[in-house]
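Tutorial handout. Part one gives the primary structure; part two gives the three-dimensional structure as tokens.
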Amino acid sequence: MNLDKFRVTSSDFTLKDHKTDDTGTYEHKKQAKKDMAKNIEKMRILQNKLYAQNEYALLIIIQAMDAAGKDGLIKHVMSGINPQGCQVVSFKQPSSEELDHDFLWRINKKLPERGRIGIFNRSHYEDVLIVRVHDLVQGSQIPNHLIGKDLWNQRFQHIRNFEQYLFDNAIIPIKIFLNLSKDEQRQRFYDRIDDPAKNWKFSAGDVSERQHWQDYMNAFEDAIKNTACPEAPWFVIPADKKWYARLVASEIIVETLENLNLAYPKLSQAEVAKLSLYRQQLINEDT
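Part two.
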């Protein structure tokens, strides 16, 4: 799959150029699920090498509107990953302790270790999305003289610098925006209301947030165009078809891991020579 049509690496980006219902060359989800199964197996092997090599870490950042399929994507795409080498963090409304620190503080605490895959369900981007749409910064502990018209551009710069820092320290960012249409979100809310097994997923706040749909789209577009770069690209994935969004995400993860040229560590000749001695010691235990 050619991922270039999803990849954003510069400020030359507008959200309207990206369809929400695109399924590429796939007409049915059966073939997509078959190809995703192959990617899951590739990820399993690549994760083993990532863990054994212990040099790189992968940070998958997922942002989207409510009901876009973030949880389902994590569940299905990462189903073959060894849980010991993966950690998922869901960032919700900041606690009082988190609000007493800079907006990247809680993010830094949850970064993956070398050899591991970290997944952020929402992230530091909430501070240029929901905080911006609802002007929550006005009620924060930030001094008023630091809240000006350049605040968002400053935060974009902080994020770019932060993600460059991650890349320079072998923590490779993958930023995914699940691009859901407003109509499809409404249908998924209907499903949550009508299906007793999904009632727990529904929140009255989901409906009220729809009133700010265009504000969110503007904020997402601004965030993506101002933080995309070759080292930390955004991938804008059509999300109206969950099965296609999951396939594309699996392709992105596999491609990123393959580009790291991962390999199992090789022993020195001296270390290899010692293996036969250790083998003999084990044999001698039975004599």
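Part three, for discussion. The mean pLDDT is 95. The radius of gyration is 22 Å.
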